[in-house]
Protein 1
Amino acid sequence: MQWAALLIVAGLCTLSQAQYDDDPHWWYQYLRSQQSTYYDPYEPYEPYEPYAVEEGPAYPYGSPPPPESRDCPQECDCPPSFSTAMYCDNRNLKYLPFVPSRMKYVYFQNNQISAIQEGAFDNATGLLWIALHGNQITSEKVGRKVFSKLRHLERLYLDHNNLTKMPGPLPRSLRELHLAYNQISRVPNNAFEGLENLTALYLQHNEIQEVGTALRGLKSLIMVDLSHNKLRKVPDGLPLALEQLYLEYNNVYTVPDAYFKVSPKLLYVRLSHNSLTNAGLSSNTFNSSSLLELDLSYNQLQKIPPVSTNLENLYLQGNRINEFSISSFCTVVDVMNFSKLQVLRLDGNEIKRNALPVDAPLCLRLASVIEI
Ligand SMILES: *[C@@H]1O[C@H](CO)[C@@H](O)[C@H](O)[C@H]1NC(C)=O
Ligand SMILES: *[C@@H]1O[C@H](CO)[C@@H](O)[C@H](O)[C@H]1NC(C)=O
Ligand SMILES: *[C@@H]1O[C@H](CO)[C@@H](O)[C@H](O)[C@H]1NC(C)=O
Ligand SMILES: *[C@@H]1O[C@H](CO)[C@@H](O)[C@H](O)[C@H]1NC(C)=O
Ligand SMILES: *[C@@H]1O[C@H](CO)[C@@H](O)[C@H](O)[C@H]1NC(C)=O
């Protein structure tokens, strides 16, 4: 009798994983009565995987407001068609609602939440995504162990908050960490310890003065954005798999010799709007054969630094360069040896237009844009 009553409820709202966990017998009966809508409970059923966009995870607009599930907090929406997601975004919340244990995706963005109290996610250890961007969370009010028990967490969105310190300890399962637009000033060397699956790290628009060796051991890291901070030095050691390094708008004045050699897959390096001078660079700093794009615009360079013949885009506008040295691009020029450079920007420097060397067309034979 009891499960018959539950069936009626189940007809209104989609089955939740929690119900299955509580009573497998009931689940079996339910499946038999619902042959046509059968799905394998052992296959995670996630009909809707929200996309990652710059502003954070998407929201399924267009569907009518669903009936609330029994355990859904009053101030949130828990769509029956996606029983592992809870939407509490954009509703002036001042505190974090309770998170039922069946949840995998929770959305709290754009509220006025200032604290993540100890134990906030203790009943939801299956969480995969937590969106908390656009709130007023301060470091003092983040419980010390709120994230560490979330052994499946893959994405944590904390951008646009009032954090002054790195949160942690963080779960080792993390794949994306979004911490942009906070007031973090320090990244301790052990900040990302054990995050073997971290692929993207967003730390732009903070007040970071130094990164130390924190990035070194991140063996899956592909992208790190540290732009718009207060770095005077580049991070001490790069990860092996890194492809994109964004350091624009800092105060970096030097890059060590062979700095990029440890990252043989590095494709894009942005160092514009820093304080680089030629004295702070060794002759082969940027001569790294994997690089496709190098942005060194708006620094204080007086010479074109030597680059690899594989480089395709080089931005040097807004420096103090006063000579067009073709040897920075080609040490040998012949039928087989030439630069793959396509775009070269040298405008806003001290080079005269007629300074293009005679052997430039031979070396830069693939160039489609050269601005002087
Ligand atoms: C988690 O669930 C248990 C039992 O369902 C309950 O007693 C406990 O208060 C819950 N924890 C939190 C933090 O709400
Ligand atoms: C967070 O920062 C904003 C902007 O600086 C400020 O208005 C707000 O009061 C801060 N909130 C808290 C809880 O500190
Ligand atoms: C990292 O990802 C792999 C493959 O998806 C997974 O097997 C492993 O458990 C993850 N590591 C952690 C610490 O979660
Ligand atoms: C870049 O390094 C290679 C060796 O790795 C060297 O042959 C080449 O001349 C260098 N390029 C420049 C422009 O110095
Ligand atoms: C010039 O091209 C030849 C043939 O591709 C190559 O073996 C040699 O290393 C090149 N020299 C330089 C300095 O790039």
Protein 2
Amino acid sequence: MQEEEFQSGKIYCANCFHCKLLPGSEGGILRIRCTAGKWKKKLEQEKVYRLCTIMRRFRDECEYYEDMGESTEFIRELRKSTNNEDSSTKSS
Ligand code: SF4
């Protein structure tokens, strides 16, 4: 994520305690769920997102948000570590 893409004052789901990686990956794609149950499809089924989508997903507010640290720094480090994870997943 480029610094200029980061929206200050917004809530990034990737920086929330409730944003969790699903075990395993389909075709090397990492998927994420919100353990607070805030991501739903039309018929109330749970929705999951790709990690790359969540890195850019932000909201104005969320009553369940619990930050994992300063957003810009946290997401930068998360992106670095998941890029390394993607590389190792693809090479195995
Ligand atoms: S609790 Fe809210 S901020 Fe946290 S991951 Fe779910 S929707 Fe995003």
Protein 3
Amino acid sequence: MEDRPIPPPPPVEVELTQLADEGYVILPEVLTATELRELREALEPLEQGRPMGRNNFEGERTHRVYSLVAKGEVFARLAEHPRVVALLDRVLLPNYLLSTLQSIRLHPGETEQPWHSDDLFYPIPRPRPILAVSTIWALEDFTDENGATQLIPGSHRWGTEHPDDRSRSVVGAVMPAGSVVVFDGALWHRGGANRSTGTRLCISPQYCQPWLRPQESQLLIAPPEVAAGLSERMRSMVGYNIHPPFVGQVEGKHPLRLIDPSYGSQSRTRKTTAAEIADHVLARPGS
Ligand SMILES: O=C(O)CCC(=O)C(=O)O
């Protein structure tokens, strides 16, 4: 398939309104054919020989590859795609974190996943202010038959109810390969059943507020020598940053000093607001 021009996106305000009202928004056909091919090719060797999931949540007919941020630049780039970042920058606090970056390939015969929300492990009563945002990038067409993610519009505002115990409508995230669904971490959803003869492949980057513990221990996945090869934004997203004034510090210093010896000599205009606040509050190097 040839790359064709990507049409201009709708104003980000329109997407933000749908995200706030419905709890999700689909951004159709964001990736080019070349980007899709690169992602699929990078993933294929990582899936070889992997066992299927260990339970019906991971999916007993599903291959997952976790911790993708350190497994290829192409994955890290996807997790900081500008169309998604434009939304994250508006709904999460500065210095939000990458919570997990994983692929999910449903094979034929996979059954529906249990209903869940992706922020369910944070013990804060619902309804609650936004804690996390999930995204699911379709690397193959998502159809009702092959297990498109099922979403319950508006359920990000629910209290403690479970979808099995109340009336609700369900929408399938039916979308062509290259599209992404972005949703509030509190939205009830599940992977669908794959009743087709092919697979349904996605990559799911998920993000959380900068004061929460991410699902994956990103600082172990991307220790300083790995983080040095990541973009500035991605370093921040894996935790080389602070939530002001000092959550995330190391030895009383900004964690970027671990991977960037010149950090202290950078012009102040290049620093984020958070880094500036940190430098006011935290001890100076060597002190
Ligand atoms: O595969 C899907 O469509 C959804 C997966 C999911 O929600 C999860 O594993 O948390």
Protein 4
Amino acid sequence: MNKLPSGLTTDLIPVVLAPMSGVTDAPFRRLARRYGASLTVTEMVASDRLAAGDEEAFERAACDAEGGVYAIQLAGCRPAWMAEAARIAEAQGASLIDINMGCPAKRVVGGYAGSALMRDLDIALSLIEAAISAVSVPVSVKMRRSVRLRARTNPQPVLHR
Ligand SMILES: Cc1cc2nc3c(=O)[nH]c(=O)nc-3n(C[C@H](O)[C@H](O)[C@H](O)COP(=O)(O)O)c2cc1C
């Protein structure tokens, strides 16, 4: 990453708490920071639900009471949702927006998000561009080394444009 999220400097301990669905909620992130994580990441947040104002999605994206440098991870496959969710995430206080392009879970891949995006680079690029143009904080992408490792859970997606 060329541009570091504000508040994160290279002299800080480079420990990043990976996004974990059902685990990295605000209290867990607070604990991780107390034990030395310099950047924490939320659970994956569905961009369409955040863009639609869903209460649970907002809770997942909520800024920690103590502050600190945190990233909000967004999942989805439509640029308009991604852009709107990224805007909301920045307004919530995120120092970094991370796009989930690695999740192999069936319910995510079945919605043409997560690692399904590694099979359609045009859509992947449009999501990245949508997020970048919507916010001023850095945007990162988390992906797997290969989608083939989980071939059974990664059907060829037909993305709806
Ligand atoms: C319970 C659990 C939930 C996870 N949820 C997410 C997620 O929401 N988004 C994501 O990008 N990765 C998710 N991951 C993957 C982790 O971020 C990480 O990439 C993976 O565990 C590999 O790291 P490790 O070798 O240190 O375990 C999850 C992993 C676990 C174990």
